[in-house]
Design brief:
Layout lengths: L3 H7 L5 H18 L7 H4 L2 H9 L13 E5 L7 H7 L4 E6 L2 H14 L4 E5 L11 E5 L4 H8 L20 E7 L3 H4 L5 E6 L12 E7 L1
Parallel strand pairs: 1-2, 1-4, 2-3, 4-5
Antiparallel strand pairs: 5-7, 6-7
Helix pairs in contact: 2-6
Length: about 220
């Protein structure tokens, strides 16, 4: 299994503490995956590529400034929330999911790393009322349905995303693969799509994207 070297290949300036946290994820997820089916056995050997590095695709698109509050909706095994919390220690990440045993495992990973900027909660997004600066998620459902269930979690900025890479002030950062035209067509928001194949050379990322939606 590829390990932390894959992460440092693309993020070579990581401080030692963050490198150590990423290195520890392999054993922590092996431990929790035996107790809760977070990642399929077949896929687990690709943990660092298909789950950790994939989560960090968001970091190639957006830098969360200190004090930013982010909610990871439908976090599952803690992706993308946990890797992003390691990458941005001065921002706060709240991982939510409707499945209690997955949240228990995510909490176990957070405690195993002693992360001070990450929390986890069993709650459906529709029932969650707290406000955040950003939503992050990884292909929970089709974008129109996802936005309908989560847009109340962030303020409405009415920002227009141009081609000059100005950062979003608030909104959704969504990891998605495949053809998106049908999903994006009905949306009435400013949207920007970044191809992860331009950031990562592995074949897995050939069709993976980060979709920014200014909600």
């Amino acid at each position: 299994m590829l390990g932390v070297d894959l992460i440092t290949r693309y993020f070579p300036d990581l401080p030692q503490e963050q490198r150590a946290h990423f290195a520890a994820l392999g054993d922590l997820y092996a431990h929790w995956n035996e107790r809760v089916n977070l990642i399929s056995r077949k896929d687990f050997e690709h943990l660092y590529e298909r789950h950790i590095l994939h989560s960090l695709g968001i970091a190639k698109v957006h830098v969360f400034v200190a004090g930013t509050h982010i909610v990871d909706v439908g976090t599952g095994g803690g992706f993308p929330g946990i890797p992003l919390a390691i990458m941005f220690p001065q921002s706060r990440f709240h991982c939510i999911d409707g499945i209690g045993k997955k949240i228990a495992a995510v909490q176990g990973v957070i405690e195993g790393l002693a992360l001070k900027n990450a929390t986890a909660e069993k709650v459906r997004s529709e029932d969650h009322e707290q406000k955040y600066d950003f939503i992050v998620s990884r292909a929970v459902t089709a974008l129109p349905e996802f936005i309908k269930a989560t847009s109340h979690l962030v303020p409405n900025t009415k920002q227009v995303l141009g081609k000059h890479r100005e950062p979003m002030r608030s909104g959704l950062l969504y990891l998605k693969g495949g053809e998106l035209a049908d999903e994006l067509r009905p949306l009435r928001y400013s949207i920007r799509v970044t191809e992860l194949r331009d950031a990562f050379s592995e074949e897995f990322f050939a069709t993976k994207k980060v979709v920014e939606v200014a909600l």
